[in-house]
Amino acid sequence: MKMISKIGLGVALLAISAISINAVQDAPTDENFEKKLVNDYNVYALPIPESLDFAGEPMPLNNPDIRERIDRELLVNAYWQSNGLLLFKRAHKYFPQIEPLLKKYGLPDDFKYLAVAESALEYKSSPAGASGIWHFMKGTGLEYGLEINEYVDERYDLEKATIVAAAYLKKSKEKFGSWTMAAASYNAGVGGMNKQINRQKETSYYDLLLNDETSRYVFRIIAIKEIMTHPELYGFNFRTKDLYPEIPTYKVKVDTAVDDWAEWVKPYGINYKILKLHNPWLRDTFLKNASGKEYFIEIPEKGYYQ
Q: Which residues cross the membrane (predicted)?
């Protein structure tokens, strides 16, 4: 089959996101409207790239099963346009914080797309209780030294959670021998992957029969990477000013109890809501700190919320 050119695909995808405004405006009768609807609204198959990889480890695209599975994830993520645009907007805000930490702690840059797949770069909890942008379960967070209680939950601290994610994934890489398997274990758990390796006598993610969620997991990450790396190819159009900015901040040390964060933050010219936007790991309106532990509060530079 002749492949659609990059330019042709980009133009095609621009046409599919919605019915043309002109199609509605130029349709004074039901008959004309239906004719315009059929002629102007088209959905196109996406050509599968010649090569795809995760962290430098190639996806075996010569395998027909693998091609079908990546095709599914490319279609699902490329045609969910509203979600895709939000991912680009949030990535502009959070990737500058995540990327240098991945590099510093020895994790391939591609793992930033794992964070996208986990949380869509939102500070939310999953139905299972995984929290923060990296979606750690409470037990895993505690195991890796994060403080998690009713006053502080460091799973929501992007810097600390990224460092823990790097430690977890590097340990998984040492165990399973590949970054792809390490990524899969982030979803299924080390024990879950070990069980299937022992049952099936296979060590490659692409050769294992896994539950539906884990079997799609790495494919979804790679599809997100492909789309976010080549937005124009998949019909996403935006300007830098359309993206969410990274707000510069400075740190303030706190090593005592805080009776009321809403009062504490007033001298810095912001309110409790803004404090929480930049410090989502603070879980209550006050802080008990009998041990005198040091915390560092992110305060936005002046002028950004006025």
A: none
